[in-house]
Specification:
This protein is mainly alpha-helical and 66 residues long. The chain is built from two helices and no strands.
Length: 66
């Protein structure tokens, strides 16, 4: 279970970094050069971070026992 928690925590950190890059004005494009809709990508990443936060909270130690 600790491995799952570590994996989820690392994934969350990666997504938070991507959100920071978007906030700084990063622009992404697909392999074929088509630009990624950054507003949609930001919303998708925010949803995924929220989902990971919920999973991390369930796998983490009970409140007050960290």
């Amino acid at each position: 279970m600790a491995d799952d928690l570590d994996r989820l925590t690392e994934r969350r950190a990666t997504l938070a970094h991507r959100l920071d890059l978007i906030a700084r004005g990063a622009r992404l494009s697909y392999d074929d050069g088509t630009p990624v809709d950054m507003a949609s990508e930001k919303a998708r990443l925010e949803d995924e971070v929220a989902r990971l936060d919920r999973k991390i909270a369930l796998l983490g130690p009970p409140a007050g026992q960290a």
